[in-house]
Amino acid sequence: MARAGLTAERVTIAAAELADEVGLDQVTMARVARRLGVKDASLYTHVRNLEDLRGRIALLAADEKTLRIAEATAGCAGKDALVAFANAWREYAHRHPGRYAATQTPIQIDPELAAQAPGPRRAIELTYGMLRGYGLAEPDLTDAVRLLRSTFHGFVALEATGSFAHKRSPQHSWVRALDALHTLLEHWPPSREGEPS
Amino acid sequence: MARAGLTAERVTIAAAELADEVGLDQVTMARVARRLGVKDASLYTHVRNLEDLRGRIALLAADEKTLRIAEATAGCAGKDALVAFANAWREYAHRHPGRYAATQTPIQIDPELAAQAPGPRRAIELTYGMLRGYGLAEPDLTDAVRLLRSTFHGFVALEATGSFAHKRSPQHSWVRALDALHTLLEHWPPSREGEPS
DNA sequence: GTTGCAAACCTAGGACCCTTAGGTTTAACC
DNA sequence: GGTTAAACCTAAGGGTCCTAGGTTTGCAAC
Q1: Where would I find the H helices in A23-162?
Q2: For chain B, what is the radius of gyration of the CA atoms?
Q3: Using one digit for the tens of pLDDT, what is the confidence trace for B167-187?
Q4: Regarding the domain delimited by B8-186, which CATH topology (the fold level of the hierarchy) does it fall under?
Q5: Cβ A142–B179 below 8 Å, yes or no?
Q6: Is the CB of A8 under 7 A from strand D?
């Protein structure tokens, strides 16, 4: 019988495809093995266990998402960059719900493996770069980055759980949210640190 | 042997406690049963299956969170209301990570059961009420509500997954995010609907 | 108090999954 | 061709979910 020619990466990709198709919690060793035409025990040569596999999906997703954002924002600045960044983020989450869900799990990722992944570091650079035009300085810059990431992630997460009732299209609210965030970045409130609250 | 006197509600509460202690994905029929001093098969008299139980945890959490927010915002207005609302949200997520995580699962909740839960409806009322002072009209009001919910949820979700590196305390960023959102609500950008984009 | 009954709880068991241990086959290299 | 490391397998133990069907319990009505 011809050998399947597996590798940790191919197993991860199969698992990621499965996650997008049937949901992350339906990603099981047995199911991934069946998709690859292999017995489940054979996967343990390439992947430590199910938790490790989930972590690998998360890292793959982070890398892919970062890449999409980098492509989308290349050459943009100001509000164009903000919109491109945000739309790339949301599109990735829509297109790959299972992969995206994997990024939401509390971290249990092998640190050694994570160190090799370029995604997270690059994502930070991209985000800070996108905000360069708004003229913020630390620590406001970090606060603004966190606010943006929170809003982007929160929006797609709520969308995914069906938390937006149907009155108004999420797409409309999304566009308006980006308008609002742009305005906010242009009028970032001055810090009152040190003052009595 | 004395009967345990279970009910769907008591099973749900035991499961919710377990979720907070060991994580939502560790909440298993067998484990809940052990905690209640009962065989796992016995739980099926009160709860349809594991998915149903998860849905019940989510509804419980939604109700509890809404209640905390209602208590916290009672008598507040303007920025005070915003801050009280947001802090109550975040504190609930911190204090009950497992319950909170349950609210993030894609909905598969029994509609009949969900209809009985007062949480979601009340939460919407509270959120709109909190924004009353900012003088927004529909559809901006809905967009603003969605933006706030996205940011609140996104922030605590990213916090929970350890996505904020340790450079700056999340608490600082949170306070600044609330400042920023308050400013934003006071200067909500005018709609340009109908204009060419 | 006795009887009846509905619900609570149990045992038994099948199907699936995760993971380890150890054997066999493949492919590549000397 | 022979050696070797890795890929892949079978076998098996233990855990989980859930159903089917039997007991027991506690209440309520006679």
Answers
A1: 29-36, 50-73, 78-95, 97-102, 111-116, 119-130, 140-160
A2: 20
A3: 889 999 999 999 999 999 999
A4: Tetracycline Repressor; domain 2 (1.10.357)
A5: no
A6: no
